[in-house]
Amino acid sequence: MAENDDVAAYLIRMMWHERKTVVAVLDQMVNPHWPYLPKRKENYENDEEEEGIEGAWSSIPDDPFDYHFYYHILDGDEAGRPPKLMALEGNKQTDNEHFDRKDKSCLHLIAKSNNKDALQHPVVRMLIKTKWQSYGHWFLSIHAAFYVIFLLLLSYSLMYGSTKLDPTLYRGAADSLRGFCEIVTLLMVVFYICEEVNQMRNERHLYFKEWMNLFDWLGLLLILCIIPLRYADSNAQWMVASLAFLFNCLRIFKFSCVTRTTGLYTKTLSKIIKRDVTRFMVVFAVVFLSFCGSLFLSFRSSKQSQQFSGFGDVLLSGFRALSEQQPIAEDYSSFNWLSILLMLAYMGTVIVILLNILIAQMSTTYTQAKRVARLEYDVDRILLLTRMERFPLLNLRVKYYKEGDWISEIKLAKELLEFSEDRHPWESVEEKLNAIRDMMRKIVKTDEAWERMKCPPVKMAELQISYKSTSVSFGCSLVTLD
């Protein structure tokens, strides 16, 4: 069985881009369970025995009562070794000495693969839920609470310090409190820098692909830059402090997954900003620079061209027209006809056309992003869980390891059916169970499951997977429990 697990883990790692391969491996981690049935006989001793045995077989439903999900492959290291092993004596699990907790799990690779079918697979979904309820939610909540404390200390240090003529002097109780807040803030900054360095060491080049990490470093380094500027008595310290406060406040979005509502909303909002606002700003930049350049040149022939002292004033007025929706100038009487025509054309293009197109695009993107927000929210949770598991000294991956779990249809309905936007709120329990049964029939072949019931308790099923021109055959343990 250990060799089979190694092969299964190897397939997920090396063939993560093959969607059907990964899903096929995940399907083999589901073991349906029916109640124990007496063995059929060709010849029965009496009618009562025949009626009892055949009646038991005829009364069994087509769908299993519950399922056993195996998690050990998804939690294993690169060699397929699970965090814990079953002891030789008793049913107690012991830590696996050969397990490398620094390796990325198969669950992490699935999250990075953008394989929607694998991410929505019941085994993956239930493992995420188990980990999140066991330690993920409370660990992130504690981390978020400490960060809120960090923001409060930073806010008091900067806000109260800005009211002093010389912030390097500490007189009175309020200044003493400010000094205490500054010291604790700097200690927390050092802690967060160490945390980022550890994350960089674990993720390597993948660390630089996360845009939120840029906010982390900007916020932390700007706080450190305030110290030399303050003791140099430079007014630039307040500009740096302003940016430091902004970036550190934006960093709180890292903890949006602490609740499902904020997590889904943040994912939808980020999708809108990434898609629509970015494309809009590209088009707006072309229109903005073109019209502002033309306006600046046409103002040279106007009587009151001194209203705009330079090209910078024209750019500022043009951008204010977008953000504040105000005309570029209050009085057009002093401008020539070309300047007036350009200003009217610019206002019409930006406010009437571009802004309305942006609103329409954002509405469409919101509808599309809402459908996949739950999926991306789960991806974020997987990445957060894997980072927690590699956190020094905690060893969460081993401590909360579960080889598998029994999952009922009710649990599956609560976790899986929320992904569908088409389900009505007054759906009955029977309708939900039927939907789950239809979903699980695609994963568990009923005919094969019935054949396993007729076989001895432990049977190895061969799964044939073709990858390009190579055929890979591996055994996946399917245990039929009485």
TrEMBL record:
Claim: Transmembrane is one of the keywords in the record: yes
A cellular component annotation (GO) from this entry: plasma membrane
Keywords: Membrane, Repeat, Transmembrane, Transmembrane helix
Protein's cellular compartments: Membrane
Pfam families: Ion_trans (PF00520)
Keyword Chloroplast: no
Domain of life per record: Eukaryota
Molecular function GO terms recorded: calcium channel activity
Ranges annotated as spanning the membrane: 135-156, 176-194, 214-232, 238-259, 280-299, 337-360
Main location: membrane
A GO BP annotation: calcium ion import across plasma membrane
Sequence ranges assigned to domain Ion transport in this UniProt record: 146-371
Topological category with respect to the lipid bilayer: Multi-pass membrane protein
Protein name: Ion transport domain-containing protein
Annotated source species: Desmophyllum pertusum
